[in-house]
Structures are given as C-alpha cells and as structure tokens.
Amino acid sequence: MDRDGIYTHYKKFKISQDLEKIWITELVNLKLINLDKKGNWNSVYFLNHHSNFNHLDKILISEPLGKYWEKCAFLEELFAMSKNMRLSKNEIHIVLNFISDKGTSIVKNTKNPTRIKDLLAKIKQYELPDN
C-alpha cells in the first residue's frame, strides 16, 4: 500500500532487505515491550498489520490498557488478527474467550459501553472456519 507516494519515495533509498529485517525485528521487540503499557492496542495493530503472528501468547497475557477507546481497539485488533491467522478451533476459542472476558470487564466499568458491546456481539456471531 502506498500512502501519498511514501512507499515509492522509500524505495528510492534502496534499503537492503537485511537492514529492513533488522529494523522490523527491532520494531517488533519494542512493540512487545509496550504490551504492558498504556496504548498497547498499537502493538497488536502493528503485529497484525505486519502479519507477525508469532506472539499471540504474549498478547493473551496482556491486559488492554489505556483509555476506553484504546482498550476497545486492543480487543478489536486482536479479533481482526485472529481472523488473519491460521488457528485451530481450540485456539480460536481461546482468543474469543479472552476477548469476551476482557470485554465484559470493560463493560462493567464503563458508562457508555456501546463500542465494546458491539464487539462482544460480533464474537458471539462469529462462525468458526472449517479446519
């Protein structure tokens, strides 16, 4: 995806694939460190956006942190990520239960939990793929 020619401009620098791999590794490590900090939704977004599905276990021991919208985004990104991954039905159940448990907790502590209730409704209606 090229946003406003940024990718085309970046390619002009001819960064080696080895250096790009080093950068991505550093970024992934930073995102994993940030899983225990406010705004950790961004870590889940980054991992999903870069199709880096090797750290689901670390996400599932993290709490959605930050403001209400950040907690919602964490769970929404995790749900999106779970649909992009090749998970067994059991693994999908684990992710959906995590989202349900954390989402239910957020609902209890929020005055207007419409966004999280919408997500909880989506996961209840989610049909498991045939594996």
How would you describe this structure to a colleague?
- The chain has one domain.
- The chain is 65% helix and 0% strand.
- The chain has seven helices and no strands.
* Total beta strands: 0
Helix-strand pattern: HHHHHHH
Radius of gyration: 17 Å
Oligomer: single chain
Please mark out the parts with pLDDT under 50 across 5 or more consecutive residues, or reply none: none
Q: Which terms would index this structure?
A:
single chain; 131 residues; mainly alpha; 7 helices; 65% helix; globular
Secondary structure elements and pairings:
Blueprint: H1 6-11, H2 17-33, H3 41-49, H4 56-59, H5 68-84, H6 89-108, H7 114-125
Helix pairs in contact: 3-5, 5-6, 5-7, 6-7
Task: Compose a concise summary of this entry.
This protein is 65% helix and 0% strand. It is mostly helical.
